[in-house]
Amino acid sequence: MWHTLLGGVAKDVILKARVDDDLAEAVDAWADEHDTDRSEVIRRALAAFLEDEEERRKRIEEARQAIDELADTGIFEPPEGDWKAGGFR
Amino acid sequence: MKLVLDTDALWHPGLNRELAAIQASGDPFSDAVDVVLPAVAYAERLRQVQDDEARKQAFERQLSRIDPSIEPFGASEAEVVAERCPSQGDWVDHARDFLIAAHVHGDRVAVTGDQGPAWDAVDHLEPDHAAELLGALLG
Question: Which residues of B touch A66 (CB under 8 A)?
Answer without folding.
Answer: 20, 61, 65
